[in-house]
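User: Fold both of these, please.

Assistant: Here is the first one.
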Amino acid sequence: MNSPLQAPRARRAALAFIFVTVLIDFLAFGLILPGLPHLVERLAGGSTATAAYWIALFGTAFAVIQFICSPIQGVLSDRFGRRPVILLSCLGLAIDFVFMALADSLPWLFIGRVVSGVFSASLTAANAYIADVTTPEERAKSYGIVGAAFGAGLVLGPVLGGQLSHIDPRLPFWFAAGLTMLNVCYGWFVLPESLPPERRSPRFDWSHANPIGSLVLLKRYPQVFGLAAVIFLMNLAQYVYPSVFVLFADRQFGWKEDTVGWVLGLVGVLSVLINVLLIGPGVKRFGERSALLFGLGCGVLGFVIYGFADVAWIFLVALPFGTLLTFAAPAAQALVTRQVEPAEQGRVQGALTSLVSVAGIVGPAMFAGSFGYFIDAGSPVQLPGAPFFIAAVFLGIGVLIAWRYTRPAAQARSTAAAVEPT
């Protein structure tokens, strides 16, 4: 049976939709970031302390829900196709933004945030979609473009959200709902199915739809299991940014909200440029393994310099090195998809997204806690950069694991193990 995506024009239109979907997901996420704390504070009766408690609860609940729901969406997309899962997720997210815009109490807003965690897991099906419609040689470039959508969304979202929330803290939610609904309409007419019926999983398997079962699935693919550890460590390390960057920059350099915003914008721009201009040619010339090791190595160097930075210019000099870590994620994703059968791409992507969610549960507390400990007056050593050193250690371990599990001999063993009967 011929796939509707065999035509290059159809493939380009489908990949453009996936790009727009990821862009809107992260744009919507960025839109509500500036206004959500103020809305929570208003619903908490003006108490900043109570608002901080609820914001922490929101973040943890969001990560936990994504941990649970990502493998479910992956298995659903393997069984019923990518298109319905992606479109229903976008529709659910649009409805949920309306729900949060109308929420008149903290418990109702919390419920809305939990539901948004359910539908935001559509990235799982989107990653599987890319694996369906691209050749192995082109996947790193395609995942790089998705990374550019991620960066662009997190650059533009907070800027636009800050302006809208200045008018009304609920306005970003309405705007995000409108954007997401437009994306649903766009996808309904543009997005073809990427997984034909004969390549789908024959049944919905609950053993792989739960997060623990989905992680066990990774053991069937030894190389994927090692790369999953690298992806986890990489995402865990990057949680140092949202956890301590604002507090660290204020303490070390005296940067306030406006300066922090410009620096984060610069990081986003660098990330987009690297994803769009460098990753495709770099992977094509040097290979996915070299790109992965290069990205992780640059990340280690960047985080070490961040940790030692006691003046602003040192931190700024390190930004290009830290941002070159962007090379690692598309290369790792491309290597993973090479080892996995089409009918299991969704569930494997779900397992990987669950690992990222675990990083979101563990990372903020670990990095914020270490920052607080090493700046406390009673600490045996004053070391504000400690969280960045910890992040560098994680990436260093990732380099060692990636070096071992991406060797040609390891790839051959992984392929042989994957085709053995289970």
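And the second sequence with its predicted structure:
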Amino acid sequence: MSETKGQTAIAHTNIALIKYWGKADPVLNLPTTSSLSLTLDEYYTKTRVEEADEDSLLINELPQDGKRVHQFLNILREEMGNFPPLRVISENKVPLSAGLASSASSFAALTAAVAKHNGWDLSLEELSRLARRGSGSATRSFFPDFAIWDKGHDDKSSYAHHLDVPDLPIALVVCRISGMVKKVSSSDGMQRAQTSPNYQAWVDESAKQLEDMKVALANADLDRVGQIAEKNALAMHDLNLTATKQRFTYFNQNTMKVLNEVKALRAKGYIAYATMDAGPNVKIITNREQAEAIKEYLAERFRKIQFDIATPGPGISYE
């Protein structure tokens, strides 16, 4: 019996150093701000697509509700032309729904696998644009190391591209405070945050921070990179607390304790700056030389938290 024909793609997750937090167009997933990210080597999604009788989804060998994937595949059919139903078989090396951008690697891998399966000759930027309709953050997971997602002004102009940065010895200490599914989804969180009276000011400041971040990266100034990223992230989370529609927070007690320890590490002379996506998990920006010491320092103080070290990762690949 011949093996079922299919195609496999691997995409790594990314952490935004300048955040995406709000939609100018929810249908097209157009963001209110441009964003800048670092692709991570240690967290990835491997996705295989095979022709089937109907669209379906398996994640880590378990059947899932494939509604979101089916809707996305139909968007691709409308955009690129019809293709048969697909079985999507995904192996996810990212904790789901915990603020580690599992949807970014998942939709990037899915888009790439479908394109390869159907023989579409597309650039990385074109793949990025298509993936945006599944997950905004997925736009950035096609590229190695650093990427910028230009917000654009319509469907054709909103996609990511690689940012060439001089060798920067950046590393992240990932504090996996919780792997539980978050109570407020990213999409819902963004909608709420956009009701904050401070939202437009955050958008304006984020645009300035993006330009400052480009300069800091070009100068390989890791301290400055961390300072900008931490300020951008904490201001993003402040929006959630000042939302006029159902204010909320992703922080828990351990989040706050880890953030305090980050300040303590800086006082001790370490390069240590916090960034967070939609979830309680803290990512500490440091250099490769200090990452292990920071991990050990925190592990002694938080016995029940898992700590990983993440480093810059590759762009999209195929098997």
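The chain has two domains: 6-166, 170-310.
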